[in-house]
Amino acid sequence: MNREEAADQLYALPPSEFTAARNRLVKETGDKEIGKLRKPTVLAWAVNQVVRSHPAEIGELLAVGEEMRAAWASGDGDALAALGPRRAAAVAAVSRLVLKAASGRVTSPAELEQTLDAAVIDADAAAQVRSGRLAGALSYSGFVPTAAPPTSAARRRPAPDLSARAAAEAAVEAARERHAEWADRLGPAVAERDEALEGVAEAERALTGARRRASAAEQRYEVVRKEESKARQALTDAEHTLRRASTGR
User: Fold this and answer.
1) Which of 44, 87, 50 is nearest to 69 (CA)?
2) Does 222 fall in a domain?
């Protein structure tokens, strides 16, 4: 199995199975680069599933994006205006499919909207979505194509500085990924802890039973010791009586 096949296999899995499967594939293939593949968020996983199970709807969304980018590049405002309703319909259709695939686990519809908008507006984002290997939400920080392309002066105007926002988004994504990784380890850790605690409980129950048996044995020992002492004294007295009888004293 090559790296591309491994990635396709991994991103088709539910997020809960991703890490274990990734580690297994690294061992099987010896390819450490596979270990660098990021576990998908629930949103990204749902998008990946829609890419695999609904190629027509995803194809329409990405096709609209290609046409809008071409119209934007050529300054064709009429084409952009005509594509507007088609874009809205494609985004709405794919959104419904993604939310259905996620079974209500997508907590940020805004991130879904941003991801689909990015796939329409940006060719690189579209390629990520088309691959079916999305690991997290996407966003686009450049100019957004509209029905009226900007003037030449506006095109020359630099985009607003979004470095702080980009850094914050990167930090959030990194934190999400780190949380997801540790969340994966939480289940096995809980199971290990519970197993250890059960072992301690069993050991404590065994210790309690052993202490009870030791206490009972100690009591039996005291009884036997006293009886043995009485018997020894009786033997001594009997021997003394025998000696006196033998000597006539």
Assistant:
1) 87
2) no
Spatial separation of the C-alpha atoms in residues 185 and 64, rounded to whole Å? 41
CA quadruple 117, 120, 121, 124: dihedral sign = positive
Q: How far is CA 224 from CA 211, 220, 233, 237, 238, in A?
A: 20, 6, 14, 20, 21
pLDDT band, residue 53 (cuts 50/70/90): very high
Q: What does the alpha-carbon distance between residue 39 and residue 35 come to, in Å, rounded to a whole number?
A: 10
Q: Does pTM surpass 0.70?
A: no
Pair of tokens at residue 150: 């900007």
Interhelix angle 109-121/77-102, nearest 10 degrees: 140
Return d(Cα 130, Cα 63) in angstroms, integer. Answer: 11
CB atoms within 10 A of CB 227: 10
Integer Cα distance of 154 and 46 in angstroms: 37
Residue 45 and residue 14 in contact, taking contact as beta carbons nearer than 8 Å: yes
pLDDT band at 63 (very low <50, low <70, confident <90, very high): very high
Q: Which structural domain, as residue segments, surrounds residue 64?
A: 40-160
Q: How many domains does the chain have?
A: 1
| DSSP notation for 109-147 | HHHHHHHHHHHHH-HHHHHHHHHT---S-----SPPP-S
Residue 121 and residue 65 in contact, taking contact as beta carbons nearer than 8 Å: yes
**pLDDT class for 77, splitting at 50, 70, 90?**
confident
Residue 7 lies in a domain: no
The region of weakest confidence among 49-58, 160-169, 177-186 is 160-169
Supply 3's token pair.
């790296």
